[in-house]
Specification:
Elements: E1 4-6, E2 9-11, E3 15-17, H1 27-35, E4 39-43, H2 58-76, E5 80-84, H3 92-101, E6 106-109, H4 119-126, E7 132-137, H5 140-154, E8 161-164, E9 170-171, H6 176-179, H7 186-204, E10 210-213, H8 219-227, E11 232-235, H9 249-257, E12 263-267, E13 273-277, H10 280-286, H11 312-320, E14 329-330, H12 344-370, H13 375-383
Parallel strand pairs: 3-11, 4-5, 5-6, 6-7, 7-8, 8-10, 10-11
Antiparallel strand pairs: 1-2, 9-13, 12-13, 13-14
Helix pairs in contact: 1-2, 2-3, 5-7, 8-12
Length: 387
């Protein structure tokens, strides 16, 4: 595989582990991925809920927990560690500051357009640029908007872009009617975003890697999307059922035991569609059952907790701890393909093997198509319009 370059960062394996909250991808999974040559990501969403008495100071708990997870990851690996920070978080700016202060290698930011940045992020970009910044977009239009805004307002641009398709897990940046529309498929989005990045690369004299995410499960998926121009991929779902994943065994078993028909789209209380694995909790919500909400902190800007049927942060932290009676599991469209819980190393080895196999098969296919055929055979095929 080609290495993935993001500024002066170099990942031996061009895989960025997707950020998964709440408490699914923390220092354990992130460091394991980094040790295999990929880029490990800590999700900051709801991270303060891991702290005792977090309800007394949710904002402070989030900052402390994020610092601790970055520091713990650093002790476990010399590889690349980043943080996924949702734009929709009420304390988004505070999370950004912590990530830069702790010198995380990169920040990945989606669930909204990461436009207005605190001074600490921009100063880092105009200085040593220790913490790279990569926005997530679901269209070429969104990607162009972000880069134009940064260019016009700050005189700098982000260090790369993640283009996330509609087959991802968790909250999705698409309307429900777009999710199964081939016009929004990742294979269509990637070349469009690559094309949009070209003028910015020329203007700023730097390479802008395009990372493809959402539905990338096998090494074959990875190879095919990289042929279309992606510099690397973002993978989340396949890394959940691993020993190193920070979620509970019960959470991981939900993936292993799921069937394709169990994957469902939900309307999240924060106003976005999402993909999850069907369970009794979600069935009760669909039937109109509401869980009383006592909100100590409006963690998501778009959440109207007074009208919400349940607290999504509480439901997700419950699930990550194995309390699925009072929560549910977010997952990508390929979650049902999971057959067992294994190590991150085993997953990376399998993906590498699948990638090499796909590359060889396509190379052989191209060779068979282009190699010259004996004249009688060529004439025979022409008669049937096969060449």
């Amino acid at each position: 595989m080609k290495t993935l370059h993001i500024g002066d960062l170099e990942a031996r394996v061009p895989i960025i582990q997707g950020g998964m909250g709440v408490a699914v991808s923390l220092s354990g999974l992130a460091s394991a991925v980094a040790n295999e040559g990929g880029i490990g990501i800590i999700s900051s969403a709801g991270i303060g809920m891991l702290m005792p008495n977090y309800s007394k100071d949710f904002k402070g708990a989030n900052q402390l927990a994020l610092r601790q997870e970055i520091q713990k990851a650093r002790k476990k690996t010399n590889g690349i560690i980043g943080v996924n920070i949702m734009v929709a978080l009420s304390d988004y700016t505070e999370h950004l500051k912590v990530a830069v202060e702790e010198e995380a290698d990169l920040i990945i930011s989606g669930a909204g357009l990461p436009l207005k940045m605190p001074d600490i992020v921009i100063e880092d970009k105009t200085g040593d640029n220790k913490t790279k910044f990569i926005p997530i977009a679901s269209s070429a239009r969104g990607a162009k908007l972000i880069f134009n805004y940064w260019s016009d307002h700050y005189g700098v641009i982000p260090d790369g872009i993640v283009v996330e398709g509609p087959l991802a897990g968790g909250h999705l940046g698409f309307k429900k009617i777009q999710i199964n529309d081939k016009g929004f498929a990742l294979e269509k989005l990637v070349p469009e975003v690559v094309a949009v990045m070209k003028p910015f690369e020329q203007r700023f004299g730097k390479n802008i890697p395009v990372i493809a995410g959402g539905g990338i499960y096998t090494g074959a998926d990875m190879y095919k999307i990289m042929v279309l121009g992606a510099s690397g991929v973002q993978i989340a779902t396949r890394l959940v059922p691993t020993f190193e994943c920070d979620a509970s065994a019960e959470f991981k078993e939900t993936y292993v035991n799921s069937k394709e028909e169990d994957l469902m789209l939900i309307e999240s209380p924060v106003g976005l569609p999402g993909r999850a694995i069907r369970n009794k909790f979600l069935e009760d919500v669909a039937a109109g059952k509401k869980t009383p909400i006592k909100c100590p902190w409006k963690c998501i800007k778009t959440c109207d907790y007074k009208k919400a049927p349940y607290c999504i942060s509480l439901a997700l932290i419950n699930a990550s701890k194995g309390n699925l009676k009072h929560g549910f599991v977010f997952a990508g469209s390929n979650a049902y393909r999971t057959k067992k819980i294994q190590s991150v190393k085993a997953v990376f080895n399998a993906i590498a093997g699948e990638y090499q196999k796909a590359m060889k098969e396509i190379t052989v296919r191209r060779h068979n198509i282009t190699r010259p055929r004996p004249a009688p055979i060529r004439q025979h095929l022409k008669e049937y319009a096969w060449v």
